[in-house]
Specification:
Elements: E1 3-8, H1 15-25, E2 29-32, H2 33-42, H3 46-55, H4 63-73, E3 82-86, H5 92-104, E4 109-116, H6 119-127, E5 129-132, E6 138-140, E7 159-160, H7 167-181, H8 183-190, E8 194-198, H9 203-214
Parallel strand pairs: 1-3, 1-4, 2-3, 4-8
Antiparallel strand pairs: 5-6, 5-7
Adenosine monophosphate binds near residues 37 and 54.
Length: about 220
């Protein structure tokens, strides 16, 4: 049976870091909507141009656009064994659409891994976060710098500070999360899908709890 998992939590909590490790472990596709938007942006597609106007201000890209992109991604062969969703769903409408999309393929979300941390921790992490332009690997100025400054350890790509990680946009992204995304906590909890994980713990501990939750 295909396995569908969701990595859920506020911006900067470490979803990307956990996803990087998990995708080596699980034989499922990694679908991160933020990465898909950034990839479109890099290729200067119409979707990329549209998404940029929202991303630059820290706002959510409209549901129908995001859902359409995920629907298209799910037609790709690598999603057959299952998917680790990262940064999706971010609204109740997206969660309902995802449920429908998975039903159409005879599947359902198995677990929602909710990683959380206080706002000051998120802001500290976002302010020091560096991302590889090519493969999306994440670094931190103090706790996880790349071996060579500005160069990705994994693929040699350019490591940069995402425009939406600049201080003015960070706060806005957290506010958007609290307003539009956090209602999903109750939504998934009621469905009995939610596992809460303390994102303030060391990366290894968070990873161990994630792995334990998905029974791998
Ligand atoms: P992320 O890389 O997950 O932090 O996403 C970066 C930006 O992409 C967000 O601030 C949104 O503008 C956009 N984005 C990513 N995922 C979604 C989503 N599920 N719904 C709407 N917008 C999204």
């Amino acid at each position: 049976m295909a396995k569908y998992l969701v990595l859920f939590g506020p911006p900067g909590v470490g979803k990307g870091t956990q996803a990087e490790r998990l995708r080596e472990e699980l034989s499922v596709a990694h679908v991160a909507t933020g990465d898909l938007f950034r990839d479109n942006l890099k290729r200067e597609t119409e979707l990329g141009k549209l998404a940029k106007s929202y991303m630059d201000r820290g706002a959510l890209v409209p549901d129908e656009v995001t859902i359409g992109m995920v629907r298209a991604r799910l037609t790709e062969a690598d999603t057959q064994n299952g998917v680790l969703f990262d940064g999706f769903p971010r609204t109740v409408a997206q969660a309902e659409a995802l449920d429908q999309l998975l039903r159409e393929r005879g599947g359902r979300i198995e677990k929602v891994l909710f990683i959380n941390a206080p706002e000051e921790v998120l802001l500290e992490r976002l302010g020091n976060r560096w991302t590889c332009k090519q493969c999306g690997a994440v670094y931190h100025t103090n706790s996880k710098p790349p071996k060579v400054a500005g160069v990705c350890d994994k693929c040699g790509g350019e490591v940069y500070q995402r425009p939406d990680d600049q201080p003015a946009v960070q706060k806005k992204r957290i506010d958007v999360y609290l307003e539009q995304t956090s209602p999903l906590i109750e939504y998934f909890d009621k469905l009995g899908m939610l596992t809460r994980i303390d994102g303030q713990q060391p990366i290894e501990t968070v990873y161990a709890e994630v792995v334990a939750a998905i029974g791998k």
